[in-house]
Design a protein that fits this description.
CATH superfamily of the domain at 17-98 and 208-259: P-loop containing nucleotide triphosphate hydrolases
Strand order of the largest sheet: 6-7-8-3-9-10
Strand content: 15-25%
Radius of gyration: 18 Å
Distance between the termini: 17 Å
Largest sheet: 6 strands, mixed
CATH architecture of the domain at 17-98 and 208-259: 3-Layer(aba) Sandwich
Shape: globular
Number of helices: 9
């Protein structure tokens, strides 16, 4: 991984200075379990924000609140200028249609071919496309992740890394304004993880994508993130560049870097 250049944005140096996402004092509890405890952060246009934390830190709950799958108990979550905590289901769906997701396991429909998986997502978002337009979009998305030759394969025929790539093609096919990556390198060998990291970096450049990357993988954080926030017990423990986080003197944060 030494040959890969790090992103070098420092805290406050955000591309274009246009926040697309803002959390303001967001709280979420499940019974007596306080998962989010007043977190505040923003994601700017063209930025890759890493949310780093161990299991149970609140990373996934924050994203579920972002897209309205879970309702925050308190606070504001603004996405593309709209407070999602105040939207109805129809309005939330309009927001969701502009967000691409790469789920941890790829989340492909096992009974559908790769072509059918991508077509289903595209047609769900835009029902007015012709068959030719759908076919062109599918081929373009698969080409962008290097798997055009897998178009008629079943998910069971794909490796874990290939499933991640197809999942990413499915996220890209709707031309999203925001991409959310959920543990994109989890469960992959080092070589395949590196390929996914390179793909995330290239997508940022090609699509000018605005992304949230949920991970506990320091290598992924180092090479894909412009900025990192570290969550612990539902609070933001640290924020900054990878170097800022690595040089943090807090003992708990230092433990991330101890082998």
């Amino acid at each position: 991984m030494e040959t890969m250049a790090k992103n070098t944005l420092k805290t406050g140096e955000h591309p274009n200075h246009q926040p697309l996402i803002m959390f303001k004092e967001v709280y979420k509890s499940f019974g007596a379990n306080n998962v989010l405890n007043g977190i505040s952060f923003s994601v700017n246009k063209g930025e890759n924000l890493i949310i780093l934390g161990r299991s149970g830190s609140g990373k996934s709950v924050a994203v579920k609140c972002l897209v309205g799958l879970t309702k925050a108990d308190k606070g504001e979550i603004t996405v593309m200028g709209k407070d999602v905590t105040k939207l109805n289901e129809q309005e939330l769906n309009q927001i969701r249609m502009k967000i691409g997701f790469l789920f941890q396991n790829g989340a492909l429909y096992d009974s559908m071919t790769v072509r059918q998986n991508l077509a289903f997502t595209l047609e769900h978002n835009n029902r007015n496309l012709s068959k030719a337009e759908v076919d062109t979009a599918i081929l373009e998305a698969l080409t962008n992740v290097g798997l055009a030759d897998a178009i008629d394969k079943m998910p069971s025929e794909l490796s874990g890394g290939m499933r991640k790539r197809i999942g990413l093609a499915r996220a890209l096919i709707i031309k999203p304004e925001i991409i959310i990556y959920d543990e994109p390198t989890a469960g992959l060998d080092a070589i395949t993880a590196r390929e996914i990291i390179e793909l995330i970096r290239s997508i940022k450049v090609k699509y000018n994508a605005t992304s949230i990357i949920i991970t506990h993988d320091l290598t992924c954080a180092k090479y894909t993130g412009d900025r990192i926030i570290v969550l612990k017990d539902g609070i933001i423990k640290a924020e900054g560049s990878y170097d800022d986080i690595e040089n943090n003197t807090d003992e708990w944060i230092k433990s991330f870097f101890q082998k």
